[in-house]
Amino acid sequence: MFGPEGERRNDAYGWIDAMAPELLRTSRELVESNEASRVSDEAVAQILTAAIRLYVAKSDGEERTFSPIAGQRDSEMTPTELLSAVSEMLRALHLGPMELALWYRRRPDEDITSTGERP
Fold first, then answer.
1. What is the pLDDT of residues 45-90, one digit of tens each?
2. Above 70 in pLDDT, residue 109?
3. Rounded CA gap, 58 and 99, in Å?
4. Residue 60: what pLDDT?
5. Which of 48, 64, 80, 84 is 20 to 30 A from residue 28's alpha carbon, by CA?
6. pTM, whole model, 2 decimals?
7. Which of 15, 9, 14, 38 is nearest to 26 (CA)?
8. Average pLDDT taken over every residue of the chain
9. Would you state the pLDDT for residue 1?
10. DSSP H helices in the chain
């Protein structure tokens, strides 16, 4: 675990924290200007794979969850964008909605009563 942000900047992997906002901003610009094709399919797949791998390692390893999407609600991503990506990720690993339903998990910070209702 890292303390103040200064320590993170001096870490060998601190460049990831430094570059993430720029990557998000640039991706937004590319989509808005209809120029997403300027980034290769391979680069997008590598970025997405890395982000998923890090998210799962942090949420499972630290036994906590955090929003995997930047911004509030759909300020950075629409439901259509999210579901399109999830569908293709499932397809890439030869999985379907049934496997997703089996793996779907309740977040640790969601409190549900024995009747299945939220308090």
1. 999 999 999 999 998 888 888 999 999 888 999 999 999 999 999 9
2. no
3. 22
4. 86
5. 64
6. 0.76
7. 38
8. 85
9. 43
10. 5-9, 14-32, 41-61, 79-92, 97-103
110, 85, 88, 90: which is closest to 100 by C-alpha? 90
Tokens 């791998």 found at:
53
Looking up tokens 């982000």 gives 51
CA-to-CA dists, residue 66 to 10, 39, 79, 113, angstroms:
24, 28, 18, 22
Structure tokens at 40: 């290769």
Tell me the two tokens of residue 65. Answer: 């969850």
Report the candidate in 71, 104, 73 with the shortest Cα–Cα distance to residue 90. 104
Q: Residue holding tokens 């610009």?
A: 29
Instruction: Locate 67 and state its tokens.
Output: 């929003």
